[in-house]
Design a protein that fits this description.
Layout: H1 10-13, H2 17-26, E1 31-32, H3 33-40, H4 44-56, E2 60-65, E3 68-73, H5 75-86, H6 89-117
């Protein structure tokens, strides 16, 4: 089966790790391309290409400010991504609870072992 184009939807667009890096960086506030280049550490043509993909699927907006283009995330377009990933939250909550329970049981066991080791003998 052929892979869907990266511009077909938001899920395909964010399959590229550098695009996720760009979205994460833009989540704080809007930025110029040069700032994005510096932050994500890839060349300007690549950043522009990734921004083009993100813009075509609606994940980022662009506005002109004089000669500069400022990019920002489109929160409404990101909502389906958030809702889909949120469906896995119960799994992670359960997994984290199990980790916590194991750690607490291990600490309790160690504490009891330490107490038995250091008990004064009559």
């Amino acid at each position: 089966m052929a892979r869907a184009a990266t511009t077909s939807d938001a899920f395909n667009a964010i399959a590229e790790p550098r695009r996720r890096d760009i979205l994460t960086y833009l989540a704080i506030r809007e930025r110029q391309v040069g700032e994005i280049v510096t932050a994500v550490g890839i060349d300007q043509p690549s950043v522009s290409k990734h921004l083009g993909v993100l813009r075509r699927v609606g994940l980022v907006h662009v506005r002109r400010n004089g000669r500069h283009r400022l990019y920002r995330t489109n929160a409404e377009a990101i909502r389906p991504l958030h809702e889909w990933t949120a469906s896995f939250e119960p799994y992670w909550q359960h997994a984290l609870l199990r980790v916590k329970q194991r750690a607490e049981a291990k600490m309790k066991s160690k504490s009891e072992s330490d107490r038995n080791t250091y008990k004064e003998k009559p």
